[in-house]
Amino acid sequence: MAVTGFVLVSFIIVHLLGNSSVFVGADGINAYAEHLHALGPVVWIFRLVMLAVFALHIIFGIQLTLENRAARPIDYNQKKNIRTSFGAETMIYTGLVILAFVVYHLLHFTMHVTNPEISVGVLPADALGRADVFTMVVLSFQKFFVSLVYAGAMVAVLLHLSHGVQSLFQTLGCLGANTLPVMEKIGRAAAIVIFVGFISIPVSILLGLIKV
Amino acid sequence: MNLTLYVWRQNGPEDKGKLEQYEAKNVSPDSSFLEMLDEVNQELIEHGVEPIEFDNDCREGICGTCGCVVNGIPHGPQEKTTACQLHMRQFKDGDSLTLEPWRAKAFPVIKDLAVDRTALDKIIQAGGYTSAYTGEVGEANQTLISKPDADYAMDAAECIGCGACVAACPNGSAMLFTSAKVAQLAVLPQGQIEAAERVKNMTEAMLNAGFGNCTNHYECQAACPKGVSVKFIAKLNREYIKALPK
Ligand code: HEM
Ligand code: SF4
Ligand code: FES
């Protein structure tokens, strides 16, 4: 869990940094996308590795949840939790929401199934002849419902990581009595930064701060 | 003070069990939680009702025998306190208390509030020992242990094996107990010989006994009557990673 979680968190941070090139405008993100595609087979190796890590994380996550539920076959009539958090208690649910979102996300921006009319390939190339990822992103997020789905998924990511980040370092044995509370704060802060970072893109587009 | 109790009554491991209501009348605020139960049991016996079964032994917070879940918290609401050391002044007149046994697959109910904690013994048997020289008595200061290591081991050794950590854990995991036992020996020179085997065997015994896996809710530390820290869980994880190639 921890190792795959760490890889996924690393990915999500790099993904956020890449996406933030949308704030530069068409030149930013279109150039970024072109660079990625120019990597050719490396992109495919990367995708396969990510897929494997993601699949392992999900399989372990489901298995873990089932085992842990089986460990308390008869529940308490009354149980008061003192220390844990909402994020920690809902890991499997936020995880499944993220899974559903990732499927939608790939259908949307990678495979162009959900909004084909405004996707790369249908849209004309930009002035420099590059695939116009920028226009695709902006036109997509101008649809309120699409933005809403992305925002909802990011709430799930926020909750998942508010527990997950510190949890992974504890699982890897990196923490001690003094560093644990610090890492809990860092983990929550990181979750908030990632949340705000991702959500700023659809929000900026809906507010008209980024337009075609 | 007068209290209403809702107590888990279960005739044996196979019985389904249910909560029964009892009144605890004229309870002294200075009595301990177990003394309150003694008085309730006295009443029950006088009325020809089977008394409530609960585990206890030392009644001074050192043996780890007592414990039930009081209003959703193992050993009751007072921090770092065993049920036997809990006093009724922690409650108010008119309070309702729900008493339930430790709930975990690995802790089958024997009767009422008493559960079978053999699973913890199984974990100890799997690695809670060290190899020692036999023969002549050694020099007293033959094996030097630094003060920080000695303190660390003593903190881990505070665990009295009550099982409240398992009862509190949303996953029914015995990770805090197991980690305290692993960590205690892992920092001492005497524990080095079996270090790798110990962490592997004890974690395996924990899983085989039907305990859940730790997902870092830290409810265990919050419920532990001895305040055993989850830093030992990180230590167990480090020991486990160290033992992987071996
Ligand atoms: C980009 C996506 C995701 C990221 C960045 C992520 C990150 C993490 C991290 C860091 C952890 C903590 C690991 C540990 O403490 O050992 C974790 C745990 C977990 N994840 Fe994910 N995860 C993602 C997607 C998913 C998905 C799709 C599922 C679907 C089932 C899922 C289910 C779980 C579960 C069940 C846990 C363990 C529960 C717990 O520790 O309480 N995750 N995740
Ligand atoms: S770690 Fe604490 S709660 Fe768990 S068995 Fe030991 S003393 Fe009891
Ligand atoms: S009876 Fe010994 S610790 Fe409570």
Structural features, described:
The complex is a heterodimer of chains A (212) and B (246). Chain A is mostly helical. Chain A has a single domain, classed as Up-down Bundle (3 helical TM bundles of succinate and fumarate reductases), CATH 1.20.1300. Chain A is 71% helix and 0% strand. Chain A contains eight helices and no strands. Chain A has helices at residues 2-19, 26-38, 41-70, 86-89, 91-110, 133-141, 144-171, 179-206. In chain A, helix 1 packs across helix 3, helix 3 (41-70) runs antiparallel to helix 5 and helix 7 (144-171) packs antiparallel against helix 8 (179-206). The longest helix of chain A has 30 residues, at 41-70. With 246 residues, chain B is an alpha+beta fold. Chain B folds into two domains: 3-111, Ubiquitin-like (UB roll) (Roll); 117-243, Alpha-helical ferredoxin (Fumarate Reductase Iron-sulfur Protein, Chain B, domain 2, Orthogonal Bundle), CATH 1.10.1060.10. Chain B is 34% helix and 11% strand. Chain B is built from eight helices and seven strands, in the order E-E-H-E-E-E-E-E-H-H-H-H-H-H-H. Chain B has helices at 33-46, 118-127, 147-157, 164-168, 175-186, 195-208, 219-223, 231-243; strands spanning 3-9, 18-24, 69-70, 73-74, 96-100, 109-111, 114-115. In chain B, the strands form two sheets. Chain B has a five-stranded mixed β-sheet with strand order 2-1-5-3-4. In chain B, strands 6-7 form a two-stranded antiparallel ribbon. In chain B, strand 3 and strand 4 (73-74) form a beta hairpin. The longest helix of chain B has 14 residues, at 33-46. The model of chain B has no long low-confidence stretch (mean pLDDT 97). Chain A binds chain B through residues 1, 64, 67-68, 70-84, 88-89, 91, 163, 166-167, 170-177, 180, and chain B through 6, 8, 19, 69, 71-73, 98, 100, 103-106, 168, 170-173, 210-219, 221-223, 229-231, 233-241. Protoporphyrin IX containing FE binds at residues 1-2, 5, 8-9, 12, 57-58, 61-62, 64-65, 88, 91-92, 95-96, 98-99, 160, 164-165, 167-168, 171 of chain A.
